[in-house]
Each structure stands twice: as structure tokens, then as C-alpha cells.
Write a structure and sequence with these properties.
Layout: H1 18-30, E1 33-38, E2 41-46, E3 53-56, H2 59-79, H3 101-113, H4 119-135
Antiparallel strand pairs: 1-2, 2-3
Length: about 140
């Protein structure tokens, strides 16, 4: 197994002490991960650390890999005595969208087929991806 592909979540492979790794994982869990659909899967990056980019075959796998990569990046900063970026505030705002029963069913089926956990994640992904493309 190459050094770059080893699983950092296993204790024996962790290059950081337990305290640093635990702190880094807590911080990384607070980061907002944005998923983008790409040919063959998804790309994920965090708003707080946009240079940490991972690819996954499904949204869930991609987010999991992103959290691990973000934890490693945060642990590196902490280990170097640098402060990691502060997390963007948690999602607290809610938007209600009225749909017909048929529209909801169609969107739920599409969300499942695309690999999303639920309709809300799917709609948020599409809206943010569309908005980011228009502002880029």
C-alpha cells in the first residue's frame, strides 16, 4: 500500500497524536461540504478549506472521504501550531417549497438514483451548484 493511500482513520497509521486527531475531526465535522456532480461521480470541497478536494462515486462516499481529508488537513495545521479556519455557521434557515405529489415523487426517485440520502440534500446540491456556476 502506498503511503498516500493508507487509511488515516486506523490508529496505527495516524501520523498525529490522539488529542490532535480528535480535535481535528471535531473541527472538520463542523465544516460545510459542497458536493458537485462530475462525470463518474462527485467532487467535494469545504467552504472553509476550498483547496481540499476529493472525488467519490456517490454523494455519501464523497462526503465521508472529504471529512477524512479535512480532518487530516486540520490536524496538519494544529500540529504546525497554526489555527485552522473557523467553521461557517450551521444551517439553521429553512426554505419551504410546495410541490405536487407527482413532482415530489419524481424528485425523490431522482435523488435516490443520483445517490443522495434525501430530497433536501438533492435540492440543496442542485440549487448551490447552479448558483455557483452562475457566479463563477
Amino acid at each position: 500500500m502506498s503511503k498516500g493511500s493508507r487509511n488515516i482513520s486506523r490508529k496505527s497509521d495516524r501520523p498525529f497524536g490522539k488529542a490532535i486527531w480528535d480535535q481535528a475531526r471535531r473541527i472538520a465535522l463542523q465544516y460545510r461540504v459542497i458536493l458537485e456532480r462530475e462525470p463518474g461521480g462527485f467532487l467535494a470541497r469545504a467552504i472553509e478549506m476550498p483547496n481540499v478536494i476529493v472525488h467519490g462515486s456517490s454523494p455519501n462516499q464523497c462526503e465521508k472521504k472529504a471529512r477524512e481529508a479535512l480532518g487530516f488537513a486540520v490536524a496538519t495545521l494544529i500540529d504546525q501550531g497554526r489555527a485552522p479556519p473557523l467553521a461557517v455557521k450551521k444551517r439553521v434557515a429553512q426554505v419551504n417549497v410546495r410541490l405536487t405529489a407527482e413532482e415530489k415523487l419524481f424528485l425523490e426517485e431522482t435523488a435516490r438514483r443520483e445517490g443522495f440520502k434525501g430530497l433536501s440534500d438533492f435540492i440543496r446540491h442542485l440549487a448551490l451548484a447552479h448558483t455557483m456556476k452562475r457566479t463563477a
